[in-house]
Amino acid sequence: MADTHNTYFNSVDWDQLQKDHPIGDDFVEFAKKSKDEIRAHQEKLFARCVDRAWKTPFYQKLWGDAGIEAGDIKGLESLNSLPVFDKKDIMDSIARTPPIGDFAGFEGYPEGRPPVIFHTTSGTTGTPQVLLFGAKSREAQNLLLGRLYRFQGLRPDDVVHSVYGHGMINGGHYVRESVIHWTNAIFMSAGTGVETRSIKQVELMRDFRATVIVGFADYIKKLARVAVEQGIDPLKDLNIRMVSGHLGREDKDSLSESWGGVECYDWYGVGDTGCIAGEGPDRNGLYVMEDAQYLEVCNIDTGAPVADGEEGDMVCTCLYKDDIYPIIRFNTHDVTRVKTDSSSLGLNFKRIEGFLGRSDNMVKIRGINIFPQAMGPLLEEIDSFAGEFICRAERDSAGRDEFIVCAEVSGQRDENEVSKYKAFLKQKIGIDCGVELSGPGDLAKLTQTEVRQKPIRLIDERF
């Protein structure tokens, strides 16, 4: 019997990959092209994605149910006529055709199933979602993040300490591949606090002279506090010069200060799409990787595109995913707005504000929309705030909604301190809310900071 294995590395046209998605100085030059040239590049890639999608049962059903026929999609100008989909549609697909679902796109490969990278989400809120990547689209995804790190200032002599989780989830594996495949930096895969205890992580950074930390802001700030508790000065005893992670509305100044004034860079992406946008050296908004991602910002309620500068859901089309699991109009339910000023670097890629909250995690309290994730940067303005928080939404017997902010603080937790927090939050968010103060570390079981890459920030007890 013939050996018919089609291996991962033989499945990628490496030269074409880097022509479609340039890296290093070539990336900067591409991003300076005219908007018409960028659009022409996007159209070429989009046509390949549509062709692959039509071979996929998931899109045959999604578009067929919406009355879309082959030939109706003329190009990116037709995008708004196509239905969006989200995680619920993916989970429905898995339920229809378990265990992987009908969105994979294995159909149409004459040699059989191509090489595939398989991950799942954490499944903390139910059945894990399947994440699938073909060799070509996986390496394109890796390239996008690797080039972003280089764009932000990652150097060949850097030692990168990663606090992204591993296991079945995608994050840590994908970040590791990005650094070791597309940069020359040394990579340390420390993982979460469960994989490598926080104290040990700080010691590893010291012993192996880490210069860059990558991960989620909450845990990176926690490591700075752990270092101080262990008598390790983040400035004098460690060599960290750069942090790149998911900062969202986090206070970058406080994160930078906790590590001795390092440069902090934000980037945004989700498991399905990979890196969508990230800050450059100007740190003035996140550049959408428009040679690979077509990003729409759409009204949370109606789904219609909003004007630049207005908040809405990020709806992403991955222009590089023309092999496995094509993604055309995926609603992330993450909220942002497009920046309207010009790039000081002369780049013509669209820029966004970054992650401003989740529309499916937004709570409406007495007519006010509140994003729980936004509480952290606000609380950072109060000196006694110790860095961890969680919010609760409750409804009393009379049907009145209440919003309670639970925060860890250093020092006094008496009524005077509670009143100070209440007055501050009313000024910032416009409504009276409850405040419960705890000591450092007391909320860990609720936020699950040590266990989860993304800590829990809302407990909604109203329903």
Ranges with pLDDT <50 over ≥5 residues?
A: none
Helix proportion of residues, in percent?
A: 25-40%
Number of beta strands: 20
> How would you characterize the largest beta sheet?
8 strands, mixed
Spatial separation of the terminal alpha carbons = 59 Å
Shape: globular
Content of β-strand? 15-25%
Integer average pLDDT? 91
Strand numbers in spatial order across the main sheet = 4-3-5-6-7-8-9-13
Radius of gyration: 23 Å
Derived from helix and strand composition plus strand pairing, the structural class reads alpha/beta
**Count of helical regions:** 13
Structure write-up:
The protein has helices at 14-20, 25-31, 35-54, 57-65, 87-96, 135-152, 171-182, 198-207, 217-229, 252-258, 375-379, 415-429, 444-447, and strands at residues 116-120, 130-134, 159-162, 186-189, 212-216, 242-246, 263-270, 274-279, 286-288, 293-298, 312-318, 330-336, 351-352, 357-358, 363-365, 368-370, 385-395, 401-409, 434-438, 458-460. With 463 residues, the protein is α/β, with parallel strands linked by helices. The protein has an eight-stranded mixed β-sheet with strand order 4-3-5-6-7-8-9-13, sandwiched between helices. It has a four-stranded antiparallel β-sheet with strand order 10-11-12-14. Strands 19-18-17-20 form a four-stranded mixed β-sheet. Strand 18 (401-409), helix 12 (415-429) and strand 19 form a beta-alpha-beta unit. The longest helix is centred in the first third of the chain and has 20 residues, at 35-54.
